[in-house]
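For reproducibility, we list the full input for the adenosine-5-diphosphoribose complex.
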Amino acid sequence: MSTQVAIIGAGPAGLLLSHLLHLQGIESVVLETRSRVEIEATIRAGVLEQGTMDILNQSGIGARMQREGVVHHGFELAFGGQRHRIDLTELTGRAITVYAQHEVIKDLVAARLAADGQIMFEVSDVALHQIDTDTPSVTYRHAGEARRLEADFVIGCDGFHGVSRPAMPTSQRQDFQRIYPFGWFGILVDAPPSSDELIYARHERGFALVSTRSPQVQRLYFQCDPNDDVNQWSDDRIWSELNMRLANHDGWQLKEGKIFQKNIIGMRSFVSTPMQHGRLFLAGDAAHIVPPTGAKGLNLAVSDVRLLARALDRFYATGKQDALNDYTETALKRIWRAEHFSWWMTSLLHTFKEASPFEQQLQRAELDYVVSSRAAATALAENYVGLAFA
Ligand code: APR
Ligand code: PHB
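The corresponding predicted structure, in tokenized form, follows.
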């Protein structure tokens, strides 16, 4: 089998790239190890930057996001028993939409299949070949048969644990990484929202976040030991920990409910360069990971494939490879900005066991500055809603 662009991975990066290429008349095939049900059920963060909202709308798949997503014009920072609202729209003229990643995946799969797009689910043994030639190919097994997909380009959108990045010679790669000494304990709860906007809390017992999925389902997180065992956390213990970290002077109370899912998420910052080797290109988590504090993971994947789709369009329209060859350098500008912002938000809002009293005071001084200086609040806001695309 052959196509123009072979895409490995049906996460937001792979599916959106296939959709954008389709709109440009460029053929692609997506290879995914998991089933459609599995990818559409993977609970992941749900904060969409302005730029991501615009791309989904402009590419014709934003209708359900507009109907079911919730636009937030601000969020709250909570520390020292007080709340401070960051007015995103007043400070930047832009906003975010809270709409879960698996809902975006559902919309993308539906749009691809409605356009007769090719997504091979439940493939296995995916391997890349001749990526440093003009005729790369991907071998895989599907429905018990060995297959080969020939293409002009192979795009690795297979996440951090995929096969694409390792297919690049390590001698030519440089990886940058920071692993944080804590994780996030995430819960999904059947309950009404406890607040109209997200609450990011810094407390001496650790970070906490009040987020949402729908008027009926809430998503909350708190900083925990990354090696902790979810079974050690009874519902009562979880609620008392969240209430302690989110308590403030005006007697506000969390709305509790039935916790129907618990998981612990590891926290790392990671960037691998270059994002191209011959005819293989990486996008999304295959090339970079951010801690979830800045809600940048999905949005970075979207901005990578926006760049790649444009560069591939230019190649097929003009034969020019310049934009493709500039992809790594161009993408890394936005990636390192988001990496810095996500590291800064994580450093600002989490407690570090090894932090000295001096460092703890510095953290507090930074928090006080962010909520008292318009300039500092604007910097936070513009990074949070997402910088305009270059
Ligand atoms: N072959 C085919 N598919 C694979 C392989 C493989 N060898 N390995 C992994 N995959 C699939 C996974 O099953 C997953 O569906 O690739 C997909 C990668 O999707 P994501 O991990 O969601 O990565 P990406 O599309 O880059 O989206 C980044 O996802 O993890 C969140 O926070 C992250 O929001 C960010 C977004
Ligand atoms: C989420 O809703 O899961 C979420 C929101 C904001 C974050 C991280 C996760 O910063």
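The two ends are 37 Å apart (CA to CA). The mean pLDDT is 97. Both points were considered when choosing residues for closer inspection.
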